[in-house]
Design a protein that fits this description.
By secondary structure, this protein is mainly alpha-helical. The protein is built from four helices and no strands. Helix 2 packs antiparallel against helix 3 and helix 3 packs across helix 4. It starts with 5 loop residues before the first helix and ends with a helix. The model has no long low-confidence stretch (mean pLDDT 92).
Length: 86
C-alpha cells in the first residue's frame, strides 16, 4: 500500500461507501493498518485516538498534533510497563 504521507494514510483509511465516524475502525481503516509499515500503523492508531479526544476528524494539517498524541501514547505505555515491572 502506498501511504507515504499522513494525508495518504488518512485518505486510505477513510475510503468507505458509508463514511467513517470519529475514531471508528472501519474495514478500510483496519486494512490500511494491516498493510502499512509499523510507524504508519501507529500513526493511524494515534489519529483515531486524537479524533476521539478533540471531537472531530483528523485532517492532513493535524499531523503534528497527531504525532504529539503518538508521543503521549508511547510515554503512557512506557510508564505502565515501568509500574508493572516494579
Amino acid at each position: 500500500m502506498n501511504t507515504t504521507t499522513f494525508a495518504d494514510l488518512l485518505a486510505a483509511a477513510n475510503e468507505t461507501k458509508t463514511g467513517r465516524s470519529l475514531g471508528q475502525w472501519t474495514p478500510a481503516a483496519c486494512r490500511v493498518w494491516r498493510e502499512v509499515d509499523p510507524e504508519m500503523a501507529w500513526l493511524l492508531e494515534a489519529a483515531l485516538a486524537w479524533e476521539l479526544g478533540v471531537g472531530r476528524m483528523a485532517r492532513p494539517e493535524d499531523e503534528l498534533l497527531v504525532r504529539e498524541r503518538c508521543a503521549a501514547m508511547d510515554a503512557a505505555t512506557a510508564a505502565a510497563k515501568g509500574n508493572a515491572a516494579g
